[in-house]
Amino acid sequence: MSKLNPKQVENLITPGTYEDGSGLRLVVKPSGRKSWLLRFQLAGRRREMGLGAYPEISLKNARLAANTQRALLATGIDPLAARDAERQARQDAQQASEARQITFESLALDYQQAHGATWSEKWRKGWLRKLDLYAFGTIGKLPATEINTEQVLKVLQPIWVSKTRTADEVRGQIEQILDAAKARGLRSGENPARWRGHLDNLLSRAEKKKARKRQHFAAMQWQSVPALMEHLQADKSLQSIATQLLILTGARARMVRFACWDELDLEAGLWALPSERMKTRVPFTIPLAEAVIRLLRGIPRIDGSPYLFPGQGKSGVIHDNAMRNLLHQMGHQDITRHGFRSSFRDWAAENTHYPREVCEMALAHDERDQTEGAYSRSDFLDKRRALMQEWANFVFPSKTIETGTKNSPEQP
User: Fold this and answer.
1) pLDDT tens for each residue of 295-336
2) Is 304 helix (H, G, I), strand (E, B) or coil?
3) Which of 37, 97, 300, 352 has its CA at a distance of 20 to 30 angstroms from the CA of residue 256?
4) Does 211 have pLDDT greater than 80?
5) Do 308 and 277 share a structural domain?
């Protein structure tokens, strides 16, 4: 039999707990706030469940709510767990609704905003331009949740054979954007733009390999590199030091230009690049030869700049063409910065007996297929350290790198 009536509930002001029967009770706080509480037992354990505040929940509605929860108990369902599941379902539905309002084009702009601070203006415009030309017309207005493999193929298939390299770059951009969307909780599941173990089964791998081969960078013969390095040593500018680091490590120009002091561990002889600094979006560690460590120790640190090679432009680092211009001034208009990676690779193939996978990994090329990669996860760091030491010994035979630099004015 019920112990409370509406008038009594309205007039209660003394703090305490007032029973209505069958576990339903009214709790009056010292502040005067009143709320309903249902006490029940489940699996021998006493539990309590709030049903809402009075007067928002009247005595009648509190009893109805209590009866609903008791009905769940009678079927073996935990009312608290059921309520939590209902709240989660509502939250998921709300998030899904919000996610549907955010288009792929908007996500691409967000990605550019988040990561583009370290990009050159040319790269930033080109990055968005490729998406505008080849992706936005097909998937730009779709939310991330609706972009599947079929949609990605609609973007890539028309240009995969005729513009394979561009198509693969667009694929990589889509993959990055959808990964970011997943991190924001805007989609779930596998990334439909992933290459290995997914799109490589649906698009021609041969075309991708041919596109790689078609991109030739003018490279210096490996036999000529020591003579160039001797000339570079005579120049103490940051551009020269950056070029030497580029050659000695086999790194890409952008990796060197934006190199930060906190990426280096000179005691351990390691240069650890985070995923966002890598073309493959996979963290990579470069072992540093003794000559490289001596070179780096000679670079002065500039107050207020995290970079090894600071500059005066918007990027905060030396100009994109600083190393190229230096090489041209030395009479090497016929070679490119990227070409030194080929010089190193040719030297390794012709003068060492290191396995192909070690030489490729030294250039951050992991060419193991998905199955092999699942079992062989080594980055060959120790073997790469020995390889890069031999390369440095070849570049500087019986010589010690001189330290000290001078800053050259940078073009904005």
Assistant:
1) 999 998 988 899 999 988 778 888 888 888 998 888 887 787
2) coil
3) 352
4) no
5) yes
Say if CB 288 and CB 249 are below 8 A apart.
Answer: yes
Query: How much is the pLDDT for 175?
Result: 95
- Report the domain count for the chain: 3
Specify whether the CB–CB gap between 318 and 410 falls below 8 A. Answer: yes
Q: Give the whole-angstrom CA distance, residue 259 versus residue 247.
A: 14
Q: How far is it, in rounded angstroms, from Cα 212 to Cα 24?
A: 73
| Sequence letter at residue 156 | L
Query: 141: pLDDT confidence band, cut at 50, 70 and 90?
Result: very high
Helices of type H across 215-355: 225-233, 238-249, 253-257, 290-297, 322-329, 339-351
- Pick from 42, 74, 95: which residue ends a domain? 95
Residue 1 covered by a domain: no
**Residue scoring higher pLDDT (223 or 91):** 223
Confidence (pTM)? 0.50
Long-range contact pairs involving 69-73 (C-beta distance under 8 Å, separation at least 24): 69/38, 69/40, 70/22, 70/23, 70/40, 73/40, 73/42
